[in-house]
Design goal:
four-stranded antiparallel β-sheet, alpha+beta, five-stranded antiparallel β-sheet, single chain
Length: 260
């Protein structure tokens, strides 16, 4: 290899290093820098740039494949604001899927909240909501993290977990109503209870065998509220549009559903 070839090679490597740094290949040095990179990925709808923000150490191949799918789903909504928030009070650091316990591959120190207008997700919805992305600090910087690290392996294929979605929406409101949802589901061998409050829309996603109950309360004067529960994309329950002037609560009970 002659001197000109060597020099060209060095220049190429230097250019690649510069480009990788310009594109955020190095870890974020602060939560604010991570927030900025998340915001840019959503503005440009760059799935690769979004995936590069995650810490992949200890992450299963299955979890890695979920990142582009998650990005493409969230990219469909119009994010109006990206902010750094503290870890929520009811935050779960681990979950059990098919008997296997998964935890985050870095200690979670906060979340990046993607705030959007609910009308961007469903035209009949008034109000807004947010999706939270947990992040943690590694030895070299800040990363987004997923629950993809196995900490125990007691797989039970006879009781496979499903991807469950609980969606509460509000329609026909001049002012977005305050929605609260209480629910319980089986994750692994445990019953897990959760509570969430948002204005205009609530969307909860988690792995579990089944939803045991789900109760929705609406605070507002007039309009309709709807509760939908899906497991692996299949409807488990759909309340339809419920007029809050007649009832401000929607109830789902798995035992009652089985008896019908």
């Amino acid at each position: 290899m002659n001197s000109k070839t060597i020099l060209a090679f060095i220049n190429l490597i230097a250019a690649l290093v510069f480009l990788s740094r310009a594109n955020g290949a190095e870890p974020a040095s602060s939560p604010e820098q991570l927030r900025s990179r998340v915001e840019m990925a959503f503005k440009t709808k760059d799935t690769n740039a979004f995936a590069a923000l995650f810490n992949s150490n200890g992450m299963s191949d299955e979890t890695k494949t979920q990142i582009p799918m998650m990005a493409s789903m969230i990219f469909k909504s119009k994010v109006t604001n990206v902010v750094v928030q503290p870890v929520p009070a009811n935050f779960q650091n681990a979950f059990i899927r098919n008997g296997i316990t998964y935890t985050f591959n870095l200690p979670v120190t906060g979340v990046i909240a993607l705030q959007y207008g609910a009308a961007q997700l469903q035209t009949s919805v008034v109000g807004g909501g947010q999706v939270t992305l947990p992040y943690g600090k590694g030895p070299d910087g800040y990363y987004l993290v997923l629950q993809g690290k196995k900490t125990s392996d007691q797989s039970n294929p006879s009781h496979p977990d499903k991807m469950i979605n609980i969606l509460v929406t509000a329609s026909g409101w001049k002012t977005p109503p305050l929605l609260s949802v209480d629910y319980a589901y089986f994750g692994g061998a445990n019953e897990i209870k959760s509570h969430s409050v948002h204005q205009g829309i609530i969307s909860e996603n988690f792995w579990g065998r089944s939803v045991e109950y789900c109760n929705v309360k609406t605070t507002g004067a007039s309009g309709t509220t709807r509760l939908r529960i899906k497991a692996n994309g299949v409807d488990v329950f759909d309340s339809g549009e419920v007029d809050v002037e007649k009832t401000k609560e929607i109830h789902f009970d798995a035992n009652q559903s089985k008896s019908h």
